[in-house]
Amino acid sequence: MIPETAAQVESQLATRGHVLLSPEQQAEEQTWRQQFAQSIRTPQALLAYLQFNQQDCQAMLADEQGFNTLVPTSYAARMQPNNPQDPLLLQVLAQSAEAETHAEFNQDPLAEADYNPAPGVVHKYQGRALLIAAGHCAINCRYCFRRHYPYAEQQRSRAQWQQSLATLAKDEHLAEIILSGGDPLALTNTPLFALLDEIEKLPQIKRLRIHSRLPIVLPARITSALCQRLADSRLQVVLVVHSNHAQEINSEVNAACLRLKQAGVTLLNQTVLLKGINNEVATLCALQQALFSAGILPYYLHLPDHVAGTQHFFVERSEAKQLHQAMQARLPGYLVPRLVKEEPGKAHKTLIN
Ligand SMILES: *Cc1c(COP(=O)(O)O)cnc(C)c1O
Ligand code: SF4
Predict the structure, then answer these.
(1) Distance, CA 339 to ligand 1 centroid (Å)?
(2) How many angstroms separate the alpha carbon of residue 144 from the centre of ligand 2?
(3) Any atom of ligand 2 within 6 Å of the Cβ of 294
(4) What count of Cα atoms within 13 Å lies in the side-chain half-sphere of residue 234?
(5) Which ligand 2 atom minimizes the distance to the CA of 146?
(6) Is 91 inside any structural domain?
(7) Which of 255, 288, 292 minimizes the C-alpha distance to 271?
(8) Does residue 131 line the site of ligand 1, with CB under 6 A?
(9) Looking at ligand 1, which atom is closest to the CA of residue 128?
(10) What is the DSSP string of 292-338?
(11) Averaged over 217-231, what is the pLDDT?
């Protein structure tokens, strides 16, 4: 179409990722990028921020095992000062237990390397394919199953994405693209919107799913420019956030989720069951209630994977089943997440219970 009016020119530019931002929108973009840049990047700085004394710091410091500390201040602000057992602190502070090695815990427990048809693509399940859209996150979670992932080998330019997507497009069953990472919302708008443009060009794709922890850990990322872009998409957009504890859900998170809902985005949550953080029925129920208040429905409750360096978070299947049954007894059905385990070689995640 040849644009006739200024509004049409603007909307055509916008659909190509060149969104024209108002001064307020530019300020919003600057705010989250600044917050991201000013994140806490050492265990020392994190413990100092939480007012631990010198002696406690010495006792709590541990080697980061090649996985750097990264915590947005907005997330650290939700931790209790001076509490070594704080459930948010334990998710991001390296502990000496990470250095332990166990035979069953390894670097690629899901064998994702076996399902890599093109760089940046993991295609394991029918109808949906996962793109490693970003090589970094806004927070580094110590239990992460991708903490050993070779992101550097998966980095893609726009032209390379076109190629990977063209390979995927030959699959007639494909209806959904999942952006994962890393964290796709840790990308700035320009590369993110360019990727969305490419995905929207594939006629058989109906849904875009974004897996992101940003709405929880850096809610300032949910800007009006981002919401506008998602609202304008021809695709149905599902955003799966990742929250593990009710203490993560504050008024900023609520406001960000409301903005996403107003943009027509379906909000779901996945949680990882983590020893010492949320393996109590009251904690899990409180999380579901807090999420629902923010407009988020439960999706998955994951059993932890056998990832090297995360043994201290591991919860046994029998304990997980008990917790899940206790949740079913206390919550309405729509607030009970599906308890799942990801197993290599399966056509879908394995439902437990
Ligand atoms: C979890 C996962 C998906 C999505 O599976 P759903 O059950 O649809 O949430 C897709 N691809 C990979 C590689 C996954 O690990
Ligand atoms: S945000 Fe997700 S991908 Fe990133 S470190 Fe945390 S768990 Fe891993």
Answers:
(1) 14
(2) 5
(3) no
(4) 11
(5) 8
(6) yes
(7) 288
(8) no
(9) 10
(10) HHTT-EEEEEEPPP-BTT-GGG---HHHHHHHHHHHHHHS-GGGPPE
(11) 98
Whether the per-residue pLDDT at 61 is higher than 60: the answer is yes
CA 210 to ligand 1 centroid distance, Å: 11
* 2 CA to centre of ligand 2 in angstroms: 43
Distance 290 CA to ligand 2 centre (A): 21
SS3 302: strand
pTM: 0.92
* 171 vs 202: CA distance, rounded Å: 11
Q: Is the CB of 125 under 6 A from ligand 1?
A: yes
The DSSP bridge partners found for residue 268 are 240, 297
Q: Is residue 276 part of a domain?
A: yes
Pairing verdict, β 176-180 and 128-132: parallel
Which of 278, 275, 259 lies closest to 219, judged by CA? 259
Domain, as residue range, for 266:
6-351
CA distance 301 to 284: 10
Question: How many structural domains does the chain have?
Answer: 1
Q: Is 45 helix (H, G, I), strand (E, B) or coil?
A: helix
- Average pLDDT of the chain is 92
Identify the residue whose C-alpha is closest to ligand 2 atom 7.
144
Does residue 1 belong to any structural domain of this protein?
no
